[in-house]
């Protein structure tokens, strides 16, 4: 019994050392105005993303303890929390990097891939915008890369389901359509928010992810 308690304690200590942390933004909270206001950015980052991080750490600590006890029932019961909060952390960590106040353009390689599948960048934006706006409830619109087909794909994901873990697609660009991402500024006008997000899309980051995925 003492040995088991000591083992659980050691696992907990290791979990603390390996805790996930809230990533710093590569810009000021007001940098994306007027597309996304400072208040939304600060709340989204320091409250919502931080909550995913906190809950993910808590779930992983519970998982480590359950594994040390070989408690299969508990391990299975933690899957939804790990998926939701882990996905929230992964998705937002990509999202912040996907945005910028600077004017950027897709790399020649990415532009060529987009045009090969959608004929033009505008046609691609139109299709991804429509798919993202149509997400029922809360979720994300994603541009991903399919390594098997070596093609780009547009996919809608519910809640905080992580793209790669759920579909195998490598995430390149995500649009968050949870209401906390836009409602304070755009109210119920989700289409206006999604259309505006293209003005702050960080094509440098998206292009780097595309190059790394190939």
UniProtKB/TrEMBL annotation:
Coiled coil: 49-76
GO molecular function, one term: manganese ion binding
Annotated Mn(2+) binding sites: 44, 92, 176, 180
UniProt EC number: 1.15.1.1
Top-rank taxon, per record: Eukaryota
Domain Manganese/iron superoxide dismutase C-terminal residues, every copy: 106-209
Protein name, as recorded: Superoxide dismutase
